[in-house]
Amino acid sequence: PQAIYLSDYRPPAYRIDKTELTFDLDPQATRVRARLHVTRHPESKAQAALTLHGHGLTTERIAIDGQALLESEYRIEADQLIIDRVPETFVLETEVIIDPTSNTALEGLYVSGPMFCTQCEPEGFRRITWYPDRPDVMAVFTTTVIGDRQRQPVLLSNGNPIERGELPDGRHFVTWEDPHPKPAYLFALVAGSLECVRDSFTTMSGREVALEIWVEAQNLEKTDWAMASLKRAMTWDEEAYGREYDLDLFMIVAVDDFNMGAMENKGLNIFNSAAVLANPQTTTDATFQRIEGIVAHEYFHNWSGNRVTCRDWFQLALKEGFTVFRDQSFSSSINSAPVKRIEDVALMRTLQFAEDAGPTAHPVRPDHFIEISNFYTLTIYEKGAEIVRMLSHLLGEETFRRGSDLYFERFDGQAVRVEDFVETMAEVSGEDLTQFMRWYAQAGTPQLTARSDYDAEKRRFTLTIAQQTPPTPGQEDKQPLHVPVRMGLMAADGQPVELIINGESHGTDTVLHLREAEQQWVFENVDEGAVPSLLRGFSAPVRLEYPWSRDELSHLMRFDEDGFNRWDATQRLALIAIEEMMAAHQRNELMALDARLIEAFSYLLREPTDDRAVLAEMLRLPSEAWIAEQQRRVDIDAIHGARRAAIEQLADNLFPEFESVYHANQQSEAYAPTPEQMASRSLKNVALSYLVANGEVEALNMARAQYEADDNMTDVRAALTLLAHSDRADLGDPAIRAFGERWAHDSLVMDQWFATQVTRPQADALERVRFLMDHPAFSIKNPNRVRALIGAFTQQNRVNFHRLDGEGYRLLADVVIELNRLNPEIAARMIVPLTRYHRLDEKRQALMRGELERIRAENLSRNVFEVVEKALA
Ligand code: HT7
Ligand code: ZN
Question: Could you give the residue numbers annotated as active site?
Fold first, then answer.
């Protein structure tokens, strides 16, 4: 497979003004007729060939202006249809047959259970018909869908329905017209036996928009939350960004087989059922919040992505980074803002940092790829959002909003580049963002190393910060970035210090602009003992090292004005303690937990707080993944053993405190996914996890009682996990059995059942995975099942995935080899844990490379090929 380079971009020679499609649906042989109204671009040469993309199409007819082409008048080469001689303006007609049933890749038109549906981003449309399948070709679409009246009573596509009618042989049709020009990746079609929940929304200019959520009949009772979330998102986008919806109808459809979370097709968003269906009995608080965020994300794309789209796929972060930033802002306006920030940062610092440090590291705007589907990554989405967040802070909220207004106005209906966005921001603010643009071009996580010096005589506190971005594959040398470092100083008495630089006061919280490889700031009039609070709110996506002592971290944990940094100080304090225990583990010595951490937790548990959601986060120890991220050499067993021992010792020392937190956060009112209730449940369940870790039967009985009370899935799942992960099979096994029987009819709950079992720390977890792969509820063809069973095991059960006998690696390689044939996109995602071997011990490295070599010997899809080659390079 060949790489494609950004530098090779050329504008399209022809534009398509109008696209007319007719689908005659059949599960094995759907006929697609396309009429494309084509015009040569004025800048193109008269002899320019017309090139269209197509994959897996059986071509029945190609005609220009009604005249069928002879075989000598066109070529089909490497997924391209090339017609050398075409008029300046013409209508191209094609007719192809495709097979949706055997489409297990879930790209293009495919069958999911009883329905037909599509996924066209990024390059799925070429599996439907011959087309210039690139985002800079935008056309107005009219789509006629013909189906069986009984089996497909509902026929949907983008825009508004303009005609419907009956046809012979029990067939019927609906014609849809979408007035907004769009690239092919935003095309959608859904057909099947679906039911609908309807609502409406009045826009800020007073237009009435019909809202519809289409699901299979048994899921009707799970649509309320998505509908409420959608309306909240529509209101928020009007208020926060002045963006109004632009069609009379907005539809969401839930589909069981889907490669990602959801897709923002114009007027017809298609959702993975796991990302839209919810009710208190089946769905945890975390999933309620996730659904709210995804519904908003897809809706927000209507402007950031659809009205203003990407010129080419290298610009993917233009729409994804901006839209993630928008959905994060929306979610934090509704839920606990500090907790939302903590969750987003935890994701960045564990998984995105790991990606940035691994063999598949790439810039937020990559300059080449083999398979674009491999680039829907945490770097593009999450780091892309962090860049937009930095911009919004650099400019200030009000100027950023002026910039976004101008961006939407100026580029409406166009396919643009990252530069267009950043230059608009530079224009409205007058800022020079030239250096800032490096954030898009340089891969790898910048490392900031800070140090301080105190001059008691002059009462001066000097802060020095150096930056360095490590080399990444293909990028040896890095330039200094423009890094905004938000900070403050906390005095010895816990009060914030006034920040005076060069005689000028900056209040108690300021942003330092680090632009050089090393810079220094001198703060005047500072008393001895001040502790710096750095990178507040995670003001830039960087690693930060500063030699805080444990006492200084405890000080920040108590007094920092910034809630995020209070959490971060607790994490750092815990990390020091756990690393000490890891060293003891490696020396085969007793692992004793630092008394200062116990004391810090005791303080947290006793001190009254008005933010219980943040407290719950502070009480969670750093994850194994985050601990691993801090190590030069990763010792899987020491990390697991030390973290586990730390939890047990906290539980032993603070049992009564955890017990009273548990009881104080019981609820009497009916379940609701409100921030207040979620905070209580989160705190209660963290406390319960410590109580159970203490090993007392009494605590396990509390978990069992919570499980049996069966009040809501958040509490049930938390209790079930504790029982299933305990050594008490007499409690865990019956609960697992009962849960499996009760929810056998609900695949989304069964996914939770799979994940709960295979994340057990006990040594039998891997055997359970193999056993459950034969369970009737599991199917390797369904991405949600694969993620729940295989993904949960390989990504959340590190100690068992990395078993020294190599069985975990073998299992994953077997799965990847099978998925490579069925669904390459999912195969390339699942393989990732196998590529992260570089900092492990030699034995594991050899085992993992061995499995990668075994995969390499297969006939590989482009997706898996690209990842394996990078991993073995
Ligand atoms: N823009 C959407 C991307 C997407 C996708 C990409 C590759 C393969 C399948 C996919 N399904 C959806 C999702 C989003 O970011 O909103
Ligand atoms: Zn998106």
Answer: 298
